[in-house]
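Troubleshooting log. The previous structure file for this entry was overwritten by mistake, so regenerating from the original sequence record. Sequence copied from the archived sheet and checked twice against the printout by T.R.
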Amino acid sequence: MRLPQPSGDERPMKDPTPAPPSSPTGPSHRRKPLLFGLGGMVVALAAAAFVLWGGRPGAHSRAGEGHGHDHEAKGPQSAALPAPVEVLRHTDRAARAAATGDAATARAALAEALKLAPEHAPALFVQACLALEAGNDAEAGDALEKLEDAAPGSRELKLLQRLRELRRTPGTSWQQAFREAWVALGRPDFQKSRLLPGATPLPPDPTDAEAEQAAWKRATSDEAKLMLALGARKLDAEKGLFLLSQVPKLEDPALYLAVMDALRGDALPESSHAEARKVFHDTLVKLAAAHPRSMQLQLLLLLGDTEQGSVLSAAELAALEKLAALPAWRENSFADLYQHARKVLKDAGAPDASAMAMTAAARSVMERGSWVLRTRNVGTRGELPPEGVKRLGRINRDIGSRMLEQPTLAERMNGLQLIRAGTQDMEEEIGRKLALAQIEALEAAIKEFQKTELARWPLHSLTEELLELTTRDEPAYLLSFAAGAQPARASGEQH
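Regenerated output below.
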């Protein structure tokens, strides 16, 4: 996640968003294709969106790098004990099945792993998690004893033991129990865990792609295919062209932005690029007209395909001033989008409906407009008189204030950066310090939460609660977890 690094209150005032490698440095105001100018924005936003959700245990990266094997290959690569690849593969499959709630598949894979290596600690860890998830206290006790023999004194074992105790109390949610157990153990850092799934790099499991492709072939409705494509690990040409064909039909701005994110880069054949630019532009014009109160759409239409870093014209400043007075950043609910995508994907038989739904929904916050505004602020400040700089500051502060109301970490952080820059331009030191304090609080909470590696624990109910709570208000959940407070209870919790 590309976040500004805390260094006290005297940070240099500059936009922390890295520019695309290919972006020109001159002030020319050339127009660039809207769809295919998105690559650099991803550096600033993709990893920021739902940093708390890193993907299923052992699963490979989706939109916004996950905690899969590709991630682990860049960090600690040691396993609990050397084991044959076949054992590791069975254990990995068991962990992913357990995390998705497929206990039967998980137990079958575990049986194969333990038949080959009865004392393989990562497999015994998954076995203990399965028993805890099932609520079978006797089986959990036996599994934890075996894990203790294989990994004596491990922090993962101690957390599971404490989790087992806490879950015996009626009304204690998985999230609450995990947080209390983690805090009671002194907030251990599991980022280098040898027991959690994903500790040993493995090649992609072909059964994952096969399951997604089977769901795609079974799908009979465009809506199901749309969500399957948006949630896919990787788009092939067929899915990419299907998404492009859906763009003119889209009436939900969130789905428009999600498709735009999915089709960035080389997702489409070069022969389709010109068509894509026109289709996306025409659809954006239509959506902006249908949603005149949506600041997000109006900003994307105004600045989305303009040159990053270039000086804002007088006409653009006037348009931004009107835009900054709009009542809402966007009009759709992120949580509703996630829940709808999850239902559609479950009905379509997707192999991991919750994770795919999160991927699809997270794509909808990958908008270019606010990023371009931040880069063009840098190019514009030096060209304005003092009153003009203050005017630009008010624009940024007001747009940032609307983004601050959103439930995703990406939007909240971008909003705070706009507010921080705006209040500095306005010479409002109290506002600047307040925005900086909120940024630093979120940065600290992110750092603390990442120690848990919570999304790598193969406990289906735990990660389902995580998904539901973060779609409601990711920054609030993050701050409450790091502080040890109890987040709002997810609807439909199972105890």
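Residues 460-483 form the longest helix (24 residues). Archived copy saved in two places this time.
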